[in-house]
Amino acid sequence: MGLILKVKSGPLSGQTLAVKADMVFGRQNATVNLNDPRVSTVHAKVTLAGGRWLLVDNASKNGIRDQAGERLDKVVLKDGVVFAIGDSQFEVSEVPDEALGDNAPKAIDPRPAKKPGKKPRYWHDVLAEFLEKNAEAFRDVIIPVAPMEPALILEFTRGVQVNSKWILGFGPRKVGLGSLDLPIWEPGAPGVCFEIHPSADGLIFKTNHPDVVRLNGREIDKDVLRMGDTIKILDTLIEVDFAE
User: Torsion-angle region of residue 10: left (phi > 0), alpha (psi -120 to 50) or beta?
Assistant: First the structure.
């Protein structure tokens, strides 16, 4: 047996609708369009669960109502049930499947569809394949490292990392949102905010983003760091000091 909805009132008054899975009631672009300001764009949906047809409210503003006007989260659609969506009232009737023709409900297999079988892959296989494909891209890079004498202290005085302090004893060092060494957590910060390079003249501050990363409030792409300098990265502020 199948189910139909007789529209007793509202914009579709007098029509008869066959109940189908994934049937959507709404104000526009729905299976059942109801030109009614009290109806939400996607108001309610029909689903088949446990062999029962259910009409489920889609968190609509005015909900589904029973004959007494009580709001319902869902309605079990069976012969004789009456419910309302906005100004439209519907009555559920049971009819033979042949009366529905092409709209008769189809048998639904509750079991999930089987996916084509795949050969399991293990992480070491994936890693070996990656290394083999990218072997030419790997090469040893020698980066000269020099001590920072005295050690550099970077103290966060504002921003998401406030009260944090870094003490750096060697370089060069990269600081930024994408740095695994010295990460900046400020949203929107560059991947590499600035670099610090030891030199005979002192510790050199370098940045490719002077418009975002400012030294002492100025757009400077390179300078020697001094005690009391400030580095500003959007809303993050860092004060420069040196270990005694």
Answer: left
CA 144/CA 150 separation, integer angstroms: 18
- Given a contact cutoff of 8 angstroms between Cβ atoms, the answer to whether 149 and 169 are in contact is no
Coil, helix or strand at residue 52: strand
Average pLDDT, the chain: 88
By three-state DSSP, how is residue 140 classified? coil
From CA 244, how far away is CA 127, in angstroms rounded? 47
Token pair recorded at residue 133: 């494909």
The dihedral built from the CA positions of residue 77, 82, 85 and 90, taken in this order, carries a sign that is positive
Q: What are the φ and ψ backbone dihedral angles of 149, each rounded to 5 degrees?
A: -125, 110
Q: What is the rounded distance in angstroms from the CA atom of residue 196 to the CA atom of residue 202?
A: 10
* Residues paired with residue 235 on neighbouring β-strands, in sequence order: none
Cβ 59 vs Cβ 42: under 8 Å: no
- pLDDT band at residue 114 under the 50/70/90 scheme: low
- Domains along the sequence of the chain with CATH: 2-103 (2.60.200.20), 146-242 (2.60.200.20)
Q: Report the predicted TM-score, pTM, of the whole model to 2 decimal places.
A: 0.45
Work out the percent of the chain whose per-residue pLDDT is above 70: 89
Q: How many CB atoms lie within 10 A of CB 92?
A: 20
Lowest mean pLDDT among 22-36, 101-115, 181-195, 200-214: 101-115
DSSP β-bridge partners for residue 196: 173, 205
